[in-house]
Amino acid sequence: METLRSYAAQRRVTLSLRRDPQLPLVVGDRDQLVQLISNLIDNAIKYGGEGGKVEVACERVASAPVAAGSLAGRPAVRIIVTDHGPGIAPEHLPRLTERFFRVDTARSRQLGGTGLGLAIVKHILRRH
Questions:
Q1: Which one is predicted more confidently, 118 or 114?
Q2: In whole angstroms, what is the distance from residue 100 CA to residue 95 CA?
Q3: CB of 13 within 8 A of CB of 51?
Q4: Residues 6+ apart with CB under 8 A from 50
Q5: What average pLDDT does the segment 88-93 reach?
Q6: How far apart are CA 36 and CA 3, in angstroms?
Q7: Contact 45, 4 (CB under 8 A)
Q8: Which residues fall within 8 angstroms of residue 44, CB to CB, at 6 or more apart?
Q9: DSSP one-letter string for the chain
Q10: Over the chain, what is the mean pLDDT?
Q11: At CA 121, angle to CA 6 and CA 27, rounded to 5?
């Protein structure tokens, strides 16, 4: 969040963090996990609307779901990034993590970016 504070300030977006004091240790590639979280927060700042608010929550999960593979049943961390922007139309959700997919091409060009952010997030999540 600290690395994105100046960008948030430029867009007049308030960042807030809520984290559980009992978070378990997270095992993974630190650089990739930082990139994953940064991409999510960056998108929330960019598309949540100027003058808005982005909330990040880190919660302890007592038991990881079956989809977590070998980590299923073990303590885990859930990270939730919330903005209060206009949202994404349901018909676009299935394609959201495709490389270069953009819901609004003109707006995306205006705000910058490559259209790879959420594809990278998906790749890192699957890898972990």
A1: 118
A2: 10
A3: yes
A4: 11, 12, 13
A5: 78
A6: 13
A7: yes
A8: 54, 81, 82, 83, 85
A9: -GGGHHHHHHTT-EEEEEE-TTPPPPPS-HHHHHHHHHHHHHHHHHHS-TT-EEEEEEEEESS--GGGGGGTTS-EEEEEEEE-S----GGGGGGTTSTT--SSHHHHHHH---S-HHHHHHHHHHH-
A10: 86
A11: 95
Distance CA 52, CA 42 (A): 13
What residue has token string 């990139």? 35
Alpha carbon distance 40, 97 (integer Å): 12
Q: Which two tokens stand for residue 105?
A: 């091409």
10 close to 52: Cβ distance less than 8 angstroms: no
Q: Are 33 and 70 a contacting pair, CB within 8 Å?
A: no
The owner of tokens 């890192």 is: 124
pLDDT band at 6 (very low <50, low <70, confident <90, very high): very high
44 is written with which tokens? 């929330």
Q: Is the distance from CB of 40 to CB of 17 less than 8 angstroms?
A: no
